[in-house]
Amino acid sequence: MRLAKYLAHAGVASRRAAETMIAAGRVSVAGKIATDPATDVDDSSRVSVDGRPLRGAEPRISYALNKPLGVISTAHDTHGRPTVVELVPAQGLRLYPVGRLDVDSSGLILLMNDGELANRLTHPSFQVEKIYRARLGGGPVADDTLVLLRDGVELDDGPTAPARVRRVRGNLIEFSIREGRNRQVRRMCEAVRHPVLELRRTGFGPLRLDGLRDGEYRRLSSSEVERLRAL
Questions:
Q1: How do residues 90-124 score in pLDDT, each as one tens digit?
Q2: Does 157 lie in the same domain as 112?
């Protein structure tokens, strides 16, 4: 098995993140630093990450979390700020967030130790739908502005793809997008001169918040995980 895939199966990180770790010299095989993610390994290869030996694949576990404001969407934070991983019971496993939410955004985020699935859910080619609700400033949002947001707006990294956009009430707008650009909803709204005042993710693929309060979590059922795989 390729080294990057082995790390993903061991719950270390997604495959793409594992490749970054390998390039940084954090992974060793049989006591020697490995820099090629295609290195062939198995459970007898003595793979270590940051000097910690791996014991092969971990049992798979996945959570849905309603991330509160002020919490960082990473496994570790060098500034000591609270992270999403601290809000769920890891049971001794290495959990990491799937995708990100800004520190000033809230809502649904997934945490798991299944690197292969995490890669599928975040890779742009799979176009997994994410749903957001944004409260906008800048005065009343006109209907023709919603049309612009649906058709695509020009950002500094190119035009956005068509999206489903609807008014919930007043300036509370729901976005359904399949792109994974950094801070995309905020940037789209800034482009039409309606800055985001509040932003919450309410859906990720087939999953919804389902009444989870801020900071609450639930473990995904096997059927929900299979629905994610089917994407």
A1: 877 888 899 889 999 999 999 998 888 888 898 87
A2: no
Burial class of residue 94 (count of CB atoms within 10 Å of its CB; 0-12, 13-18, 19+): middle
CA–CA gap between residue 129 and residue 80 (Å, rounded): 32
What pLDDT is attached to residue 56? Answer: 67
71 and 174: one domain? no
The two structure tokens encoding residue 161: 């793809």
Query: For residue 169, what are its two tokens?
Result: 């009430």
The domain in which residue 90 lies consists of: 62-124+207-229
Q: Say how many domains are in the chain.
A: 3
Question: Does pLDDT of 213 surpass 70?
Answer: yes
Of 102, 104, 151, 157, which is the active-site residue? 102
Residue 101, Ramachandran bin (φ over 0: left; ψ between -120 and 50: alpha; else beta): beta
Annotation says 143 is catalytic? no
For 37-66, what is each residue's pLDDT tens digit?
999 998 889 999 999 898 766 788 999 999
